[in-house]
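C-alpha cells please, single chain.
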Amino acid sequence: MSQADFWVPLNAHTASRSEPLWYWLPGWSFTATIFEPLLAALPGRHLGLDYRAFYQCLTQSGQTPTFNDAVTLLRQTASADALWVGWSLGGALAHATLSHDRLSHDIQSQAAAGTTSRIQPRALCTLATGSRFLRQSDTSQQGMDEATFSAFRNGFERFPAKTLKRFLALCCQGAEQPRACIAALSSQQLTDQYAPLLATSLDWLTQYQLDDHQLNNQHADILRLAWYGQHDALHPAGLTSSAALSTIPSCGSSHALLLEQATIPLLQRALLELINASAGKQP
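Here you go.
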C-alpha cells in the first residue's frame, strides 16, 4: 500500500532530499489542512493524514478497525526518517506508532539495500494529547470523565451534526477569542456525512494508553515536544518534552491551541528549533 493513499501533500513546495519530511496528524473529526497556519513557516515536505482515505484502507477487511489497527497501518506505510506532529487523537496515533519497533516501511527499505542500521524518527511533537483520554480515577485531574464521554458518544449516535458543533465549543473553551477559534475549526471539520468514520475514530480515544518510557526504549535519542493549553476543557496531560528542549515553553489556552493567534508564532519557533536540534542527530 502506498503512503499516497492517505498521506496527502499540504504544501506545493517541492522539497529537496536535504529538507525534512513532516507527518501531520489532526485531531478527531478534523482534516489535516488545519495545520496550514503552522507549517507555512516550516521548511520541508509536509504530508497530512486524511482520515477519510485512512478509514477506507482500514475497513477493506470488513472489520471495525481499532486504535491498534490504525497504528499498525501507519507503521506499514510511513517512513521513520521524519518529524511527526500530532494534535489530540493525531498525537496519540503518532506517539503510539513511534513507540513500537522500527517502522515496517523502513525495515523493508533497509533489507532491499542490504543494510541493517536503524533510522531514527527525527522528532515528535504532540499538541493537547494526553497519555490517556479518559480519566483514570475520581481523584485524577487528567482526562475526560468516563460518564461525560459516554453521554457525548450517545449524543453523537443520535444527533451527529449537533454533537460535532458541541465538540467545536469544547475545543475552543478557554481560548482568548473562542468565536474566532470556533470559526477556524468549523471550516476544517468533517461533517456527519462521515458518521461511520467519526464513530469508529471516536472510540479510538478510549483505546490507548501512551507511555513515554516505551517510546524512549525504542528511540532513545528522539526529541519530543508536548504542548498543552492552560485551560483545556478536555484536561490532557502526562506526556513530556525532551530535557534538551525544556527551555521551550508550552503555551496556549484551549484544546485548539494550534489555532490561537498568540500561540502560532511561538509554536512555529519551537518547531524550527526542533528541526535544528534534530538535524544534529541525523547520521
